[in-house]
Design brief:
Layout lengths: L8 H24 L24 H30 L5 H26 L4 H24 L8 E2 L3 H27 L15 H28 L4 H26 L4 H24 L1 E2 L27
Antiparallel strand pairs: 1-2
Length: 316
């Protein structure tokens, strides 16, 4: 049965992915402009208004604008759920991934509210960022699965290379988490009165840099392993692109550290973190495939699988 799509899931999933990466950038803008408490309460912007007021000034506009982006993300995520449900045949994995993205967005909003109510506690702010990383992972998975079938994944490389890729993914996640710790120990707290996590910024930065060097080494090793195993060109290209992103991100990180963290470079570094994570996911996805002609996980609503044909008895 040919697949019928009432709404275009794949471009909607891509829009969701891009919008969630954009949320990382706008969140960085809130913090870097000192607008973290531009709306000093939650869910209202002030005790008397759900929207920003003239008294809040530009900081209120920036913080409230970031809050409004959540509604745009929710609208796109809801459209993805509807598109996944209307597909014929309906694909179980696409429905579940679209629902996961949709459910995480209000969770993200609540954590954002807690950051305001705790006066920008650095650990809560860090959790707010890490939830965005989780949403990006679900959104990326939805985008890739929207072009795949439902059969079991077929590996395109030997198992040891897959193991190396998963180790690389774990280290990539650790690099991002350590970056959150570094951010919580340094300036740009989002408000002049916001507290920091109390850790030594130099020591935290060194641990983060060590993890970055490990990630670079693993990426180079993966590229050589893919070439040695004659892996598909798309897999090698994904690993090379990831290495290029890592090198650019590392350069920004070193320059921002030795230039005392100018806000534009810090913002670029936040975007780079989201791109490193997306590049890592691209590598993992490039190492396997799911044939498009695989049977759907479950039949469309109201239909049941066709009964198997009775075997024709052999003549006696």
């Amino acid at each position: 049965m040919p697949e019928v799509r009432f709404l275009p899931l794949r471009p909607l999933a891509l829009a969701s992915l891009i919008a969630n990466v954009a949320l990382v950038v706008t969140g960085a803008a809130v913090r870097l402009t000192g607008s973290g408490l531009g709306c000093p309460t939650w869910p209202r912007c002030t005790d008397a208004s759900y929207t920003t007021t003239a008294e809040m000034g530009v900081h209120g506009v920036i913080e409230f604008g970031n809050r409004l982006l959540t509604f745009a993300l929710g609208f796109i995520a809801l459209a993805c759920v509807v598109a996944a449900l209307l597909e014929r045949p309906r694909r179980r994995a696409r429905v579940l991934l679209s629902i996961a993205v949709l459910l995480y967005i209000p969770l993200q909003a609540v954590i954002g509210g807690i950051t305001v109510l705790t006066n920008l506690n650095p650990w809560v702010v860090g959790l707010h960022f890490l939830v965005s990383i989780v949403i990006i992972a679900f959104a990326y998975a939805l985008w890739r699965r929207s072009a795949e079938g439902d059969g079991p994944p077929v590996p395109l490389v030997p198992r040891p290379i897959n193991h190396l890729a998963w180790i690389l993914t774990a280290v990539s996640a650790a690099v991002i988490a350590l970056g959150v710790v570094v951010t919580g120990s340094g300036p740009h707290a989002g408000d002049l009165d916001a507290k920091r996590n109390g850790l030594d910024p130099a020591a935290a930065s060194q641990a983060h840099a060590d993890a970055v060097f490990l990630l670079l080494g693993l990426t180079v090793a993966l590229i050589f392993a893919l070439r040695a195993a004659s892996a598909p060109r798309a897999a090698v290209r994904a690993a090379v692109v990831l290495l290029a992103i890592e090198l650019g991100q590392g350069l920004i990180g070193f320059v921002q550290y030795f230039t005392h963290l100018p806000v534009l470079l810090v913002g670029a570094h936040m975007l780079g973190a989201a791109l490193v994570w997306t590049g890592t996911l691209s590598v993992v996805w490039s190492l396997r495939e799911r044939p498009l002609d695989a049977a759907p996980a479950f039949p469309p609503a109201g239909l049941s699988p066709a009964p198997a044909e009775e075997p024709i008895p052999a003549p006696r």
